[in-house]
Amino acid sequence: MDCLFCKISKKEISSDIVCENDNFLAFKDINPKADFHTLIIPKKHIESIKELQSEDKELIGEMFLFIKEIARDKNLKGYKIAINVGKEGGQFVEHLHAHLLAGEIKEVV
C-alpha cells in the first residue's frame, strides 16, 4: 500500500509525534492552520468516513476518546475537531484522519 499516513504510522516516514497508542497516532500537521494543529489517524487503513464499516464503530469511538486525552494532556481549554471526507470535502490524503485545532485558527481545514 502506498498510503502516506500508513507509512507514517509504521514509522517509514518520520513525523513529529504528539501521542500514540496501539490503535492511533497523533502527529503535528506539517502545514498548520492553527497555533495547535495535530492530525489523528487510526493505524488501521480506512480511506474515509464513506468507507467505515459497522465493525469500525468501536474504533471510531476510541478515536474520539484518544482526541479527548490529547486535549486534556495539552491543556486545551477549547478546540475544534474537523474531519474532511473526499477530495470535494477537502480530504487530500485518502486515510481517515481528524484535525485537532486550538488557539488562533488561521485558516479553515
Instruction: Please report which band the strand proportion falls in: under 5%, 5-15%, 15-25%, 25-35%, 35-45% or over 45%.
Output: 25-35%
CATH superfamily: HIT-like
Cα shape: globular
What strand order characterises the main sheet?
1-2-3-5-4
Q: How do the helices and strands follow one another from N- to C-terminus? A: HEEEHEE
In total, the number of domains comes to: 1
CATH class, please?
A: Alpha Beta
What would you say this structure looks like, in words?
The structure is a single chain. The chain is an alpha+beta fold. It has a single domain (4-105), classed as HIT family, subunit A, CATH 3.30.428. The protein has 2 helices and 5 strands, in the order αβββαββ. It has helices spanning 4-9, 57-73; strands at 17-20, 24-28, 34-42, 80-82, 98-105. It has a 5-stranded antiparallel sheet with strand order 1-2-3-5-4, with helices on one face. Strand 2 and strand 3 form a beta hairpin.
